[in-house]
């Protein structure tokens, strides 16, 4: 099975499992529910087409090129293959954490990223909802980092599947038993952990940036265990877009280019620090 087929099979399997799980054991009552799905899934198809068009070799191609040309840290340092794969996956997860932080901190990038946060519900499809320009920039970041560290192709395939799968898992509207959630969140980002990040309260939007490993938020001081209003009482989305047509594909595509920054969480945190 080639890399593309493997990733597609993993995507379909994980999406199907999360869709069934959130139907069987929903965490919250959704305001719009399945009405959002055509637009959220439509932007996935558009993003997939653009990535294939602009980056035909993809992130795996970058890893193969780095290996063939002995470029990058792990192509210069001798380590056991298993250690190289494990370290590459961990470092890639760290770079995605910091990329997420930066997309909240830089006004121009926040304009793009707020397409993701503008969803007024949160479920498995929210984890796939990103503006095409953000997807392209993210791909450039990944390719640059893969070449810089010399990540092996095996690690890149594993990471791409894990990142995509965990994004669907931790955005899913799934109720996990409290003890299971408490155990998993020690290492990984659970739906209850990441849901806090989609709160309309800026200080909560500016927390829990991890998509896979929860340790980065703990290490870098961006961890928040629970939302102030509770998971049933919290409001999802962005304050100024609560009544906007956020489940329209056309609206999502033009959102970065219209209006002011609105709810800009990182500037809010800077202001809070100045006020202390």
UniProtKB/TrEMBL annotation:
One of its GO terms (cellular component) is membrane. Its main location: membrane. It is found in: Endomembrane system. It comes from the Bacteria. Keywords: Lipid metabolism, Membrane, Oxidoreductase, Transmembrane, Transmembrane helix. The chain crosses the membrane at residues 6-25, 37-65, 85-106, 145-169. Residues 86-222 form the Fatty acid hydroxylase domain. It holds the Pfam family FA_hydroxylase. The keyword Membrane applies. GO terms for molecular function: glyceryl-ether monooxygenase activity; iron ion binding. GO terms for biological process: lipid biosynthetic process; membrane lipid metabolic process. It is a multi-pass membrane protein. This is Sterol desaturase/sphingolipid hydroxylase, fatty acid hydroxylase superfamily. It comes from Mariprofundus ferrinatatus.
